[in-house]
Amino acid sequence: MAVETAVERLYNFSAGPAAIPLSVLQQAQKELLSLPGCGASVMEISHRSPQFGDVMAEAEQRLRRLLDVPENYRVLFLQGGSRLQFSMVPMNLMLADSSANYLLSGAWGKNALSEARKSGAVNVVWDGATTNYDRLPRQDDVTLDSNASYLHLTSNETIQGVQFQEDLDWGDVPVVGDMSSDFLSRPVDVSRYGLIYACAQKNAGLAGLTVVIIRDDLLDRSSDGLPGYLNYRLHAEANSLWNTPPTFGIYLFGLITKWLEEEVGGLSAMRKQNQDQAKSLYDVVDASDGFYQGHAQPDCRSLMNVTFRLPNEGLQSQFISEAAEHQLDALKGHRSVGGIRASIYNAMTDAGVDVLRQFMNDFRDRHANR
Ligand code: PMP
Protein backbone atom coordinates (compact mmCIF):
# COMPACT_ATOMS: atom_id res chain seq x y z
CA MET A 1 0.00 0.00 0.00
CA ALA A 2 1.25 3.46 -0.82
CA VAL A 3 1.77 5.61 2.25
CA GLU A 4 2.31 9.10 0.90
CA THR A 5 1.06 9.39 -2.67
CA ALA A 6 0.12 7.22 -5.57
CA VAL A 7 3.84 6.54 -5.88
CA GLU A 8 4.96 3.92 -3.39
CA ARG A 9 6.98 5.60 -0.65
CA LEU A 10 7.89 4.07 2.69
CA TYR A 11 8.13 5.75 6.07
CA ASN A 12 11.84 6.35 5.79
CA PHE A 13 13.82 6.39 9.05
CA SER A 14 17.21 6.32 7.34
CA ALA A 15 20.08 8.08 9.13
CA GLY A 16 21.36 9.52 5.87
CA PRO A 17 21.03 9.93 3.00
CA ALA A 18 17.61 10.52 4.47
CA ALA A 19 14.04 11.46 3.64
CA ILE A 20 13.46 14.65 1.65
CA PRO A 21 10.15 16.54 1.94
CA LEU A 22 7.74 15.23 -0.66
CA SER A 23 6.84 18.69 -1.95
CA VAL A 24 10.54 19.38 -2.55
CA LEU A 25 10.91 16.19 -4.58
CA GLN A 26 7.80 17.05 -6.55
CA GLN A 27 9.11 20.53 -7.30
CA ALA A 28 12.45 19.10 -8.40
CA GLN A 29 10.63 16.57 -10.57
CA LYS A 30 8.56 19.32 -12.18
CA GLU A 31 11.63 21.38 -12.96
CA LEU A 32 13.98 18.53 -13.83
CA LEU A 33 13.83 18.89 -17.61
CA SER A 34 13.80 22.65 -17.68
CA LEU A 35 14.39 25.15 -14.92
CA PRO A 36 11.77 27.89 -15.41
CA GLY A 37 13.08 30.54 -17.78
CA CYS A 38 16.18 28.52 -18.52
CA GLY A 39 15.32 25.98 -21.22
CA ALA A 40 17.62 23.36 -19.71
CA SER A 41 17.90 21.28 -16.57
CA VAL A 42 19.75 22.90 -13.68
CA MET A 43 22.16 19.97 -14.10
CA GLU A 44 22.96 21.08 -17.64
CA ILE A 45 23.87 24.73 -17.18
CA SER A 46 27.16 26.38 -16.31
CA HIS A 47 27.86 27.03 -12.66
CA ARG A 48 28.89 30.52 -13.86
CA SER A 49 25.65 31.21 -15.74
CA PRO A 50 23.41 34.01 -14.47
CA GLN A 51 20.61 31.46 -13.98
CA PHE A 52 22.69 29.28 -11.69
CA GLY A 53 24.01 32.41 -9.99
CA ASP A 54 20.40 33.23 -9.05
CA VAL A 55 19.83 29.70 -7.73
CA MET A 56 22.90 29.87 -5.53
CA ALA A 57 22.28 33.42 -4.31
CA GLU A 58 18.72 32.57 -3.34
CA ALA A 59 19.81 29.43 -1.48
CA GLU A 60 22.37 31.43 0.47
CA GLN A 61 19.92 34.23 1.27
CA ARG A 62 17.33 31.79 2.54
CA LEU A 63 19.94 30.08 4.72
CA ARG A 64 21.06 33.44 6.09
CA ARG A 65 17.49 34.39 6.94
CA LEU A 66 16.68 31.02 8.53
CA LEU A 67 19.74 30.97 10.78
CA ASP A 68 20.05 34.73 11.09
CA VAL A 69 23.66 34.44 9.97
CA PRO A 70 25.61 37.58 10.97
CA GLU A 71 27.17 39.73 8.22
CA ASN A 72 30.72 38.78 9.18
CA TYR A 73 30.18 35.10 8.35
CA ARG A 74 30.70 33.56 4.92
CA VAL A 75 28.67 30.68 3.52
CA LEU A 76 30.59 28.13 1.44
CA PHE A 77 29.09 25.39 -0.71
CA LEU A 78 31.67 22.61 -0.81
CA GLN A 79 32.04 18.90 -1.55
CA GLY A 80 33.74 15.98 0.15
CA GLY A 81 31.19 15.45 2.91
CA SER A 82 31.76 16.10 6.57
CA ARG A 83 34.69 13.71 6.55
CA LEU A 84 36.62 16.17 4.44
CA GLN A 85 35.81 18.85 7.02
CA PHE A 86 37.44 16.60 9.64
CA SER A 87 40.65 17.34 7.70
CA MET A 88 40.01 20.85 6.38
CA VAL A 89 39.21 22.25 9.81
CA PRO A 90 42.60 21.41 11.37
CA MET A 91 44.53 22.12 8.16
CA ASN A 92 43.12 25.65 8.01
CA LEU A 93 42.51 26.59 11.62
CA MET A 94 45.35 25.10 13.66
CA LEU A 95 47.77 27.76 14.85
CA ALA A 96 51.47 27.17 15.52
CA ASP A 97 52.34 26.44 19.17
CA SER A 98 48.76 25.78 20.11
CA SER A 99 46.57 22.71 20.35
CA ALA A 100 43.13 22.02 18.98
CA ASN A 101 40.59 20.99 21.62
CA TYR A 102 38.18 18.11 20.92
CA LEU A 103 35.06 17.25 22.86
CA LEU A 104 34.19 13.60 22.22
CA SER A 105 30.50 12.87 22.60
CA GLY A 106 30.35 9.90 20.25
CA ALA A 107 31.65 8.11 17.18
CA TRP A 108 31.76 11.14 14.87
CA GLY A 109 33.70 13.29 17.30
CA LYS A 110 36.24 10.47 17.57
CA ASN A 111 36.53 10.27 13.80
CA ALA A 112 37.08 14.01 13.62
CA LEU A 113 39.79 13.74 16.26
CA SER A 114 41.72 11.04 14.45
CA GLU A 115 41.91 13.16 11.30
CA ALA A 116 42.97 16.22 13.30
CA ARG A 117 45.86 14.31 14.87
CA LYS A 118 47.41 14.15 11.41
CA SER A 119 47.66 17.95 11.30
CA GLY A 120 49.05 18.81 14.71
CA ALA A 121 48.64 18.81 18.48
CA VAL A 122 45.23 17.89 19.79
CA ASN A 123 43.83 17.81 23.28
CA VAL A 124 40.76 15.82 24.29
CA VAL A 125 38.86 18.07 26.71
CA TRP A 126 36.05 15.64 27.47
CA ASP A 127 35.38 12.05 26.46
CA GLY A 128 32.10 10.20 27.03
CA ALA A 129 33.69 6.78 26.43
CA THR A 130 33.41 5.62 30.06
CA THR A 131 29.59 5.62 29.84
CA ASN A 132 29.53 4.46 26.23
CA TYR A 133 28.64 7.92 24.92
CA ASP A 134 25.21 8.09 26.50
CA ARG A 135 25.53 11.68 27.78
CA LEU A 136 27.01 15.12 27.25
CA PRO A 137 29.16 17.18 29.59
CA ARG A 138 27.92 20.16 31.54
CA GLN A 139 29.87 23.25 30.63
CA ASP A 140 31.88 23.21 33.85
CA ASP A 141 32.98 19.61 33.21
CA VAL A 142 35.11 20.88 30.34
CA THR A 143 38.36 22.77 30.75
CA LEU A 144 39.61 24.33 27.55
CA ASP A 145 43.19 25.35 26.81
CA SER A 146 42.93 29.11 26.93
CA ASN A 147 45.13 29.47 23.85
CA ALA A 148 43.57 26.57 21.91
CA SER A 149 43.27 27.07 18.16
CA TYR A 150 39.63 26.03 18.37
CA LEU A 151 37.20 23.72 20.17
CA HIS A 152 35.58 21.03 18.01
CA LEU A 153 32.27 19.51 19.05
CA THR A 154 29.54 17.44 17.43
CA SER A 155 26.14 19.01 18.05
CA ASN A 156 24.30 15.74 17.41
CA GLU A 157 25.95 12.34 17.52
CA THR A 158 24.08 10.47 14.81
CA ILE A 159 25.08 6.97 15.92
CA GLN A 160 24.60 7.21 19.71
CA GLY A 161 21.71 9.70 19.57
CA VAL A 162 22.93 12.39 21.98
CA GLN A 163 22.41 16.05 21.13
CA PHE A 164 23.23 19.48 22.51
CA GLN A 165 19.93 21.38 22.62
CA GLU A 166 21.60 24.74 23.10
CA ASP A 167 24.59 26.70 21.85
CA LEU A 168 26.78 27.00 24.90
CA ASP A 169 29.10 29.95 25.43
CA TRP A 170 32.64 28.57 25.43
CA GLY A 171 34.36 31.94 25.73
CA ASP A 172 36.92 33.26 23.28
CA VAL A 173 38.13 29.99 21.75
CA PRO A 174 36.46 29.64 18.31
CA VAL A 175 33.98 26.79 18.39
CA VAL A 176 33.78 24.48 15.39
CA GLY A 177 30.44 22.68 15.28
CA ASP A 178 29.90 19.52 13.28
CA MET A 179 26.16 19.99 12.73
CA SER A 180 25.88 17.32 10.08
CA SER A 181 22.89 15.60 11.57
CA ASP A 182 20.95 18.46 13.16
CA PHE A 183 21.62 21.32 10.76
CA LEU A 184 18.49 23.44 10.23
CA SER A 185 16.55 21.41 12.81
CA ARG A 186 16.36 24.35 15.23
CA PRO A 187 17.45 27.99 15.48
CA VAL A 188 21.19 28.30 16.20
CA ASP A 189 23.11 31.22 17.64
CA VAL A 190 25.70 31.34 14.86
CA SER A 191 27.68 34.02 16.68
CA ARG A 192 28.71 31.41 19.27
CA TYR A 193 30.62 29.51 16.57
CA GLY A 194 33.72 30.22 14.53
CA LEU A 195 32.75 27.61 11.97
CA ILE A 196 29.76 25.35 11.38
CA TYR A 197 29.75 22.51 8.88
CA ALA A 198 27.14 20.05 7.71
CA CYS A 199 26.95 17.47 4.96
CA ALA A 200 23.61 17.94 3.28
CA GLN A 201 22.29 14.38 3.11
CA LYS A 202 20.33 14.45 6.37
CA ASN A 203 18.37 17.69 6.75
CA ALA A 204 19.61 19.66 3.78
CA GLY A 205 19.21 17.46 0.73
CA LEU A 206 21.74 15.66 -1.37
CA ALA A 207 24.93 13.76 -0.56
CA GLY A 208 27.72 15.62 -2.32
CA LEU A 209 27.02 19.09 -0.92
CA THR A 210 28.64 20.24 2.31
CA VAL A 211 27.67 23.62 3.75
CA VAL A 212 30.25 25.58 5.73
CA ILE A 213 29.55 28.80 7.63
CA ILE A 214 32.78 30.49 8.71
CA ARG A 215 33.53 33.72 10.60
CA ASP A 216 35.48 35.85 8.15
CA ASP A 217 38.46 36.63 10.40
CA LEU A 218 39.23 32.89 10.54
CA LEU A 219 39.86 32.89 6.79
CA ASP A 220 43.16 34.65 7.52
CA ARG A 221 44.42 31.42 9.08
CA SER A 222 44.34 29.50 5.77
CA SER A 223 47.90 29.22 4.54
CA ASP A 224 48.83 29.68 0.88
CA GLY A 225 50.69 26.38 1.07
CA LEU A 226 47.52 24.33 1.42
CA PRO A 227 46.30 22.33 -1.57
CA GLY A 228 43.85 24.64 -3.33
CA TYR A 229 40.65 22.72 -2.79
CA LEU A 230 41.40 22.40 0.91
CA ASN A 231 41.80 26.14 1.45
CA TYR A 232 38.69 27.89 2.85
CA ARG A 233 39.99 31.31 1.85
CA LEU A 234 40.13 30.40 -1.84
CA HIS A 235 36.53 29.16 -1.75
CA ALA A 236 35.39 32.31 0.04
CA GLU A 237 37.23 34.62 -2.38
CA ALA A 238 35.67 32.81 -5.33
CA ASN A 239 32.16 32.73 -3.81
CA SER A 240 32.14 28.91 -3.88
CA LEU A 241 33.07 28.89 -7.58
CA TRP A 242 36.77 28.10 -7.15
CA ASN A 243 35.94 24.82 -8.82
CA THR A 244 32.63 23.52 -10.13
CA PRO A 245 30.41 23.23 -7.06
CA PRO A 246 27.75 20.49 -6.67
CA THR A 247 25.14 22.41 -8.64
CA PHE A 248 22.19 20.05 -8.27
CA GLY A 249 22.81 19.74 -4.54
CA ILE A 250 22.82 23.54 -4.20
CA TYR A 251 19.59 23.75 -6.20
CA LEU A 252 17.96 21.14 -3.95
CA PHE A 253 19.29 22.91 -0.87
CA GLY A 254 17.56 26.04 -2.17
CA LEU A 255 14.27 24.14 -2.44
CA ILE A 256 14.66 22.80 1.09
CA THR A 257 15.38 26.21 2.59
CA LYS A 258 12.34 27.53 0.70
CA TRP A 259 10.25 24.69 2.16
CA LEU A 260 11.53 25.57 5.64
CA GLU A 261 10.67 29.23 5.22
CA GLU A 262 7.40 28.99 3.35
CA GLU A 263 5.81 25.69 4.35
CA VAL A 264 7.22 24.97 7.80
CA GLY A 265 7.35 28.60 8.92
CA GLY A 266 10.98 28.82 10.02
CA LEU A 267 13.29 27.04 12.41
CA SER A 268 11.35 27.63 15.63
CA ALA A 269 8.38 25.87 14.06
CA MET A 270 10.73 23.16 12.81
CA ARG A 271 12.13 22.65 16.30
CA LYS A 272 8.62 22.35 17.75
CA GLN A 273 7.74 19.62 15.25
CA ASN A 274 11.01 17.83 16.00
CA GLN A 275 10.43 18.07 19.76
CA ASP A 276 6.89 16.75 19.49
CA GLN A 277 7.84 13.85 17.25
CA ALA A 278 10.82 12.84 19.40
CA LYS A 279 8.76 13.08 22.59
CA SER A 280 6.10 10.78 21.24
CA LEU A 281 8.71 8.07 20.60
CA TYR A 282 10.66 8.56 23.84
CA ASP A 283 7.35 8.41 25.72
CA VAL A 284 6.81 4.92 24.36
CA VAL A 285 10.34 3.93 25.45
CA ASP A 286 9.78 5.36 28.94
CA ALA A 287 6.38 3.72 29.39
CA SER A 288 7.57 0.29 28.26
CA ASP A 289 8.70 -1.01 31.68
CA GLY A 290 12.20 -1.58 30.38
CA PHE A 291 11.18 -3.48 27.25
CA TYR A 292 12.67 -0.68 25.20
CA GLN A 293 15.88 0.72 26.67
CA GLY A 294 16.92 4.12 25.41
CA HIS A 295 20.65 4.55 24.85
CA ALA A 296 20.95 8.25 25.72
CA GLN A 297 20.37 9.69 29.18
CA PRO A 298 16.99 11.48 29.10
CA ASP A 299 18.43 15.01 29.34
CA CYS A 300 20.81 14.40 26.40
CA ARG A 301 18.44 12.69 24.01
CA SER A 302 18.62 13.53 20.37
CA LEU A 303 15.56 14.90 18.60
CA MET A 304 16.99 13.52 15.36
CA ASN A 305 18.16 9.96 16.06
CA VAL A 306 16.12 7.98 18.58
CA THR A 307 18.25 5.03 19.69
CA PHE A 308 17.08 2.11 21.82
CA ARG A 309 17.46 -1.61 22.37
CA LEU A 310 15.11 -4.52 22.89
CA PRO A 311 15.66 -7.31 25.42
CA ASN A 312 17.62 -9.50 22.99
CA GLU A 313 19.01 -9.74 19.47
CA GLY A 314 16.24 -12.08 18.34
CA LEU A 315 13.53 -9.57 19.26
CA GLN A 316 15.50 -6.80 17.63
CA SER A 317 15.59 -8.64 14.29
CA GLN A 318 11.92 -9.51 14.62
CA PHE A 319 11.12 -5.85 15.36
CA ILE A 320 12.85 -4.77 12.19
CA SER A 321 11.25 -7.36 9.97
CA GLU A 322 7.74 -6.83 11.36
CA ALA A 323 8.18 -3.07 11.10
CA ALA A 324 8.82 -3.50 7.39
CA GLU A 325 5.35 -4.99 7.02
CA HIS A 326 4.00 -1.61 8.21
CA GLN A 327 6.10 0.28 5.64
CA LEU A 328 8.50 1.34 8.43
CA ASP A 329 11.94 1.32 6.82
CA ALA A 330 15.62 1.64 7.83
CA LEU A 331 15.25 1.19 11.59
CA LYS A 332 18.34 -0.94 12.15
CA GLY A 333 20.88 0.71 14.46
CA HIS A 334 24.36 1.57 13.22
CA ARG A 335 26.54 -1.53 12.79
CA SER A 336 28.93 -0.31 15.51
CA VAL A 337 26.31 -0.13 18.29
CA GLY A 338 23.42 -2.35 17.20
CA GLY A 339 19.87 -1.90 18.50
CA ILE A 340 17.29 0.27 16.80
CA ARG A 341 17.76 3.79 15.48
CA ALA A 342 14.79 5.80 14.26
CA SER A 343 16.11 8.85 12.47
CA ILE A 344 13.38 11.48 12.43
CA TYR A 345 14.92 14.38 10.59
CA ASN A 346 12.99 17.44 9.44
CA ALA A 347 11.26 15.64 6.58
CA MET A 348 9.76 12.91 8.77
CA THR A 349 5.99 13.30 8.83
CA ASP A 350 3.79 13.11 11.93
CA ALA A 351 2.03 10.22 10.21
CA GLY A 352 5.29 8.25 10.00
CA VAL A 353 6.03 8.80 13.69
CA ASP A 354 2.50 7.82 14.58
CA VAL A 355 2.69 4.54 12.71
CA LEU A 356 6.02 3.77 14.40
CA ARG A 357 4.66 4.68 17.83
CA GLN A 358 1.65 2.41 17.41
CA PHE A 359 3.81 -0.38 16.08
CA MET A 360 6.18 -0.08 19.07
CA ASN A 361 3.30 -0.27 21.54
CA ASP A 362 1.75 -3.19 19.74
CA PHE A 363 5.06 -5.06 19.45
CA ARG A 364 5.72 -4.62 23.14
CA ASP A 365 2.25 -5.82 24.10
CA ARG A 366 2.82 -8.97 22.12
CA HIS A 367 6.35 -9.70 23.31
CA ALA A 368 6.93 -8.31 26.82
CA ASN A 369 7.30 -10.99 29.52
CA ARG A 370 6.94 -13.92 27.18
N1 PMP B 1 29.57 13.86 11.22
C1 PMP B 1 28.35 13.41 11.56
C2 PMP B 1 27.72 13.90 12.83
C3 PMP B 1 27.70 12.50 10.73
O1 PMP B 1 26.49 12.02 11.07
C4 PMP B 1 28.31 12.07 9.53
C5 PMP B 1 27.65 11.10 8.57
N2 PMP B 1 26.76 10.24 9.08
C6 PMP B 1 29.59 12.55 9.23
C7 PMP B 1 30.18 13.46 10.09
C8 PMP B 1 30.31 12.11 7.97
O2 PMP B 1 29.68 12.67 6.87
P1 PMP B 1 30.07 12.27 5.38
O3 PMP B 1 29.69 10.84 5.20
O4 PMP B 1 29.26 13.20 4.53
O5 PMP B 1 31.53 12.50 5.22
| Ligand names | 4'-deoxy-4'-aminopyridoxal-5'-phosphate
Query: Strand order within the widest sheet?
Result: 2-10-9-8-5-3-4
How many distinct beta strands?
A: 14
Structural class: alpha/beta
Strand fraction: 5-15%
What ranges have pLDDT less than 50 throughout 5 or more consecutive residues? Answer: none
Biggest β-sheet strands, sense, barrel: 7 strands, mixed
State the helix count. Answer: 9
Average residue pLDDT: 96
How many angstroms does the end-to-end distance come to?
A: 31 Å
- Overall geometry comes to globular
Radius of gyration: 21 Å
Give a brief rundown of this model.
Helix content is 34%, strand content 15%.
Describe the structure.
- This protein is of the alpha/beta class.
- The protein has helices at 22-31, 50-67, 81-93, 107-116, 232-237, 247-264, 267-286, 313-325, 350-367, and strands at residues 11-12, 73-78, 100-104, 122-127, 151-154, 156-157, 162-163, 175-178, 195-199, 210-215, 293-294, 305-309, 328-329, 340-343.
- Helix 1 crosses helix 6 and helix 2 (50-67) packs across helix 6 (247-264).
- The strands form 4 sheets. Strands 2-10-9-8-5-3-4 form a 7-stranded mixed sheet.
- The model has no long low-confidence stretch (mean pLDDT 96).
- Helices cover 34% and strands 15% of the residues.
- The chain is globular and about 65 Å long.
- The structure holds 4'-deoxy-4'-aminopyridoxal-5'-phosphate.
- 4'-deoxy-4'-aminopyridoxal-5'-phosphate (PMP) binds at residues 16, 81-83, 108, 154, 158, 178, 180-181, 199.
